[in-house]
Queue: 4 jobs
Job 1
Amino acid sequence: FKHMSPDVMAQIGTLWDPGHNYIVPFMWGTHGVTYNRELVLETYPEAPIGSMDMVFDPRHMKELARCGVSFLDSPTDIIPMAMAYLGLDPNSTNKADYQKAEGMLKKIRPYIKTFDNFAWQRMSQREFCVAVTWGPDGLQAMSQAEEANTGVVLDFFLPPAPMFWVDSWVIPGDAKNVENAHLFMNYMMRPEVASNDSNYSWYATANKTAIPMIDEAITSSPAVYPTAAQIGTMWTTAVIPPKIERVRTRTWTNFKAAN
């Protein structure tokens, strides 16, 4: 664990693994909005760029629908983001909170062109002007647009209090090859391995020792490595009770069907 980022370890310790006995972090990140500034302003000059009103307020979504808006196809990401936007607990166990989120989401549903985790790949062709994406995918979208040399310039912004997620390694309780599992995780935690993973995927590594070995285009991007101030405002999702998980699933189904 000596190579692990204190910020990442602190987030893991908040709700998931307080004693740091089970989880070894791998990659981490957050969510935000990737957008084509020129196309957005050409379509809707009053667009509130930099505010989550841009994607959660139906007044603005109605206008931006003319140039194409995409959302992640992920209830465990979008619903907590929507609840945070409403000032509700993203980890709420109160059914009424999910009903409030559903009511808000249904109002913007007619203006969402698609639910697609890879819509950012088509932003350089101007198929979408706005996409809710994972942070690192925002950076990839910006780079892809630059390489396409079509004149499309993309940008990215985070919510004021972003959600933190982490991909991690754990060993199942009934694992038969525990020694090999530890060897694998030790290998993945080598700084030279972690840096290679990050340079390949463009996702942030939890390995602080590896950062100097990562391409500066990745480490300097707030889409991948948010500022210390932004990290300080991040929150994590919790494992919610099965009964509430069913409520969240129903909320998502009703949202997507409310076109």
Job 2
Amino acid sequence: YEASTKQFSRKINTDSLSKWASSESILPDWFKAQAVDYSSLLHELEYDKVGVPPDYSKLPEVLPHIR
């Protein structure tokens, strides 16, 4: 039994991951709409494809190699 692998046996809680894009978020709407434009890492991880609010099922199953 490896405790650190337990996290991989459960589905990711996308509700928590999506809180940044909710109407209760403290982030301004303009930032939520353009967050990917301000971060090359988000673009490289293909977060530009998930939209706002995010649909994390659109992320690739295999993460790209980051330069």
Job 3
Amino acid sequence: MSGHPFLTVIMPAHNAAGLLPRSLGALRNSDLPRDRWELVVVDDGSSDETSLIAARYADTVVTLPGRPHGPAYARNRGFEVSRGDVIVFIDSDCVAHVDTLSRFAALFEEE
């Protein structure tokens, strides 16, 4: 990692179609420049429109088929495709403040 860390935000989601526009929309409004972070949404066996909605916002959508495996399993699958120097986990029912990612990044800035 040199200078500014690149963040990966991983969001596990199960039947979260009703929540994602708000939670992912809040991330879209982050004050951290978009070229400094990626968003990975892991759809954990949803039976609703979770994957379709996630695809409107996320850089990567991982779809886990079959029964739900749980958020820990979904986070691990997201980690497998992540490119970040720093991993940030945010659940699908959480709405991040505009400065959440920039504050995380600041903790890992190199002087």
Job 4
Amino acid sequence: MDFEKAFMRPFQDGKKLALGILLSLFPIINLLALGYLAKSTHLVLKKRKAFALPEWDDWGNLFLHGLAAALIGIAWSLLVVLVIVAMGGTLIFSLLLGRATLSSVFAALVNAGLLVAAVPAVLFLAVYMLPASFVEYAREYRLRDAFRIKTLARISFRKEYFAAWFVGGIYITAASLMLRWIPLLGASVASFVASMTALTLLAEIRRDFQSE
């Protein structure tokens, strides 16, 4: 991983950066910015040391790639929601139908404990795997590739992936905190710039992994 080039990549071209930040501000239109991130990731995956920013063109495909990226995010979010609904529903069902016996109360407490433990675990899994899904999609722009669990596991359980994910997460968090005083624009700057850097690092790892 080339951390220096990954961190400097968003700032190579002020006009391209400004357009990405601007488009990130508006709902629906921000799918174009997501698509541009996918295009930038694709470039790193296909060409070694390809840190140049791509052109803002082919707007239709940018929108479609952004829509695909949004669907990937929604899919991982739904996983968390389904776990909460399933375990929460089981807990409520057992409380409503069960008689107030010691065993039923104990079972309800166990279910509640499992819910409390499972939700953070599944939430972490979704946050951890989502970037890998995005990078997998960006390789060939195939949505099904984003959900190849075996491939995602092989990549995301590597120490290099964890390092890049951790650094990217810290960068996104720090940038968001530092720029939060700028209404709307601060979040857009932090999101676009930090995501570009984090995805560049992860794309380098994925590219090196496929060449092994």
